[in-house]
Batch of 4 targets.
Target 1
Amino acid sequence: MTEVVYGRTFAADQDPREPWYDDNGLIWPNVFNPSETVPAPYGGWHQEKHFASGGLVTTTSALVNLAETYYIQMEDFCGGVLGNYGEPTNGVRPNPKRSHNGRLRGTSSYLRQRPDGVNFALIFNKALDDSVFNDPRDMLDDAFDTFDADGFTWPTQGVEGQWVDFDAPIFQFGNGSYERPWRLFGIALSSSPDEATLNLKSGNSPWTGTLDRPLRLRAPQGGTSRIGVNI
């Protein structure tokens, strides 16, 4: 449940982990004060009233857990038969594949449930047409079909947040991802938003300074990460 929060109307009230919601500069009247205008995803509607229609903010990991636990589509979607839509899977995989998607201004998502038990979720910080989901969906389906045939070793660690590796190659161009982590702690700080998650790989940094905003520092791989810091 730490991965699920209520959506909020205005940016100042939103969870710090939420992204910027891109809607190509679309401007709407402020739902609480129609005499002024706001970016559509930030006050164009009363988000707190969307209890059962896009009212939650979550992560891909939580969506995949949902698909592991409950059926996400009608048994016969085109025929309108409710079947086991929303009921527990009890470990029984759907056949054929099932999907569920949705969107609001500034965000869209796609959830896939496969007969082999490989489920995946896509979340975008932009409202996309259904047809746009087809390419990444088909790419992932093809990849997982290949994995089923050839075998695949799944990762056991999530990679959420920014990554810092003090022992990364000195000339490596980092971008904060797991595969291309920041090397210098100072650069990681200046490149991360408030309340960001910084994951530290094992190593030592000579950096000293002041942490002047809230951050979450983690060492999810264990080992020892040392920095010099005055708080």
Target 2
Amino acid sequence: MTMYVHGYSDTEAGRLADQANTLADFIHTTVRFPAGSRVLEAGCGVGAQTVHLARNNPDVHFTSFDSSAESIEKAREKILQENLTNVRTEIADVYNLPYPAGSFDHVFVCFLLEHLADPNRALKGLKQLLKPNGSIMVVEGDHGSYYCHPKSDAADHAVQCLIEAQARKHGNSLIGRQLYPLLVKAGFNEVNVTPRMIYADSSKPGLVEGFTKKTFIAMVEGVKNEALTLRLSDEQKWNQGIADLYRATHEDGTFCYTFFQATAVRS
């Protein structure tokens, strides 16, 4: 796995929690597994999505792994705080997983593939862990789908800096649009991709605060030092871009972003 472009700070952990909580109705409303199922959550990070999965599926057994020991420790703390007993967390490498073939009924992947240099290899490995007719669900964003009003070249530039910074770490923040061909290439069947658009204006203050500000803009702000170090931007242009992103959270502003939710089956 490549280095996580957003870092492993407590601030980033908080952003991930805000993101998961804000998007819970968009991602987790329909994520239900049969009682007794064994589900593998790949790249669970700090457990922000894990707690929603486990809480909504109390009779399902989850194994949630991440390559970062620091993130897994935070995930375990979160799971303990939530009194969830149906989750086992482990440190593991998505390219070299320690589980026998056919170990799981379902796999859940959320915001992982964008950080991988070889998502096809990861998907093929995860497919081998599924039982025949087992399913996978993949949720990924696509920073190229963002737009805001008032339109701003400086805001677009700041977002492009994030896209470029992630690409230089061999990640792909435009991967949402590629889920269908990726899953087909990995050998999955019955691939179905649904775009899930998040739109925020002043009539939706919860989304303005939870998604536009605390999820998306916070994510862009988090790569400032890297953007400046890599000379992708300068201080003045960067600051203007961030200011213009916040301008879209004003009473007359709007913000839009699209996630992609894919399901597929192992034959």
Target 3
Amino acid sequence: MSAREAPAPESAGDPIARFQELFAAARARETADATAAALATAGLDGAPSVRMVLVKEVDAHGFRFFTNLGSRKARELEENPRAALCFHWPTLQRQVRVEGPVEPLPGEEADAYFASRARESQIGAWASRQSATLSARAELEERCNRVAERYAGALVPRPPFWGGFLLVPERIEIWSGGEHRLHDRELFHRQATGWSMERLYP
């Protein structure tokens, strides 16, 4: 079929709702952490970098993740506020790719998520100078010990250098595994009036 004869995109439902159904199923069935996703960013030089992050909350506004604001990913997002996420759930034979602009989350949202973390993770957030050079493991352990002593018997507040981001999806692709590599790929595009969907060859 030529490009001129290519079918028009189909009308589509809400891919966020589809994602949330898959997300719930993955959290119930996957042996690994189903909230883990690969996050791709790029700075002003255009060189891509990717790492795993935990995406704990998704709603109609987008996909939320948190990090040290001095980290490489945070610096790149400040320079180039666009990103892509990829979730892979092998038990479900599903993969979801998300692309769009990224914006900082309000401090109160970061406070609420930080308060929900394990105390050890809160202490680690204070101790880590994420992405900076570490001379020895003992240095990190000592920094953790000092933070633990500082907040002994008290709540650990959110560090001022730790916060969150919201990826606002413009494109969402839902990949479903098929026999003989004849996978199903649904690509959703955000439009002014909602979402459109087109199918892609595997």
Target 4
Amino acid sequence: MNDAGDNPFEELLLSLARAGVKFIVAGGVAAVFHGVPRVTFDLDISVDMDPDNVRRLLDVLEAEGLRPRPPVPAEALLDRESVRKMTEEKGALVFSFVDPRDPLRQVDVFLARDMSYERLTALSESHRLGDQEIRIVSAAGLLQLKSRIHPLREKDELDIRYLRKRLEEKG
């Protein structure tokens, strides 16, 4: 991922890193970083839910023109009780932000505990992107996460196949 044209989320990822947001890239964008040939229109990230970190995240997303999709204000992510209610009472897995000018440009912030920043840190590795270091779920970690999806979608089956091949090539 050295060319901005390779990754439509590169500038956003760089903005997050430059602002000091602690986050980990997962999902389709992570798969692309590992060489999986696929198209994705959303950026899945796990974020350290420390209020100062969440505030930096919200500031970057707002500056990038992204707005919350749910009928809940973005600031709800700053309140642990609100996040608990979204996950436990509403069954929310992510909090989505969309660009009103480009509805295909979306950021999903994981809310589920099994996709928490703390959990994914152990499955992630540091990668250089432009002038920044960002954390991305490793190929092995992504394979582990994707293998737990039920029901398995066709795109996940393809990701799993490519990730296994990539890991076999690495030895």
